[in-house]
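Example record used in the benchmark description.
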Amino acid sequence: MATIDTDGDAYTNPTWERYDRRTRLIRFFALLGALVLTIVSYQALAVRYEYVRTAPENMGNLIERMYPPDLAYSSTIVEPMIATVNIAVVGTLFAILMALPVAYIGAENTTPNRSTYALGKVIIAASRSVHSLIWALVFVIMFGGGVLAGILAITFRSIGFIAKLLAEEIEEINHAPIEAIQATGGNTLDVLIYGIVPQVKAAFVGIAVYRWDINVREATVIGLVGAGGIGVELNNRINAFDWQAVLTILLAILVVVLVSEGVSAYSRKKIR
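Model output (structure tokens):
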């Protein structure tokens, strides 16, 4: 379309487009590829729809067998439930102690060199890539069933989570206080204590509390593979088809998780 400007000259006014032709083609084939991959993946799952159709009936039958909960059984699960909370608490504390140096070497602005930076990233990735159930299986094989395997599973699963988030916080700190400490002759320890810690303290507390909240839930699950806590009792009751006791355990787990959620939310609110 030709337009006359103020000098009387004609020029072409092209239609504005957000993407050029090449970008549109790339986006189209990317979406098409994603769609094809989704369809192929879904077909590879080989979903058996007869189970989907009977699921509501089976669920209703299971609820009938679970209700009412066996309240007399409540006293039996107090000890394993306490063990579950202890696994979460001790595992989180161990994870914090082990994650602090990993976060320090895993932050680009505090790591001593590229080798330590790579080591920190490898530890973080290795911890986070293995699910807590897999960690639990490994430690049950190594140390046998019980709370020790559960504590170690929670610990090794949590190291990467805490270290990754804390390292990201360290990378975002203000470097002016650090430069001031170094200018006055402060050593590396002075920089850490007076320059880095005050800036990441609030975030660190929030990360630790949040991870403990997650670990309370995970500690209820790892017992299914023998790593101690309420999960062991839950697995035993399921194997015995004692569904009323199963419902009692599930309700107890729900109460503990809700309490941990409340404590976590309250703690994070206080440190903001």
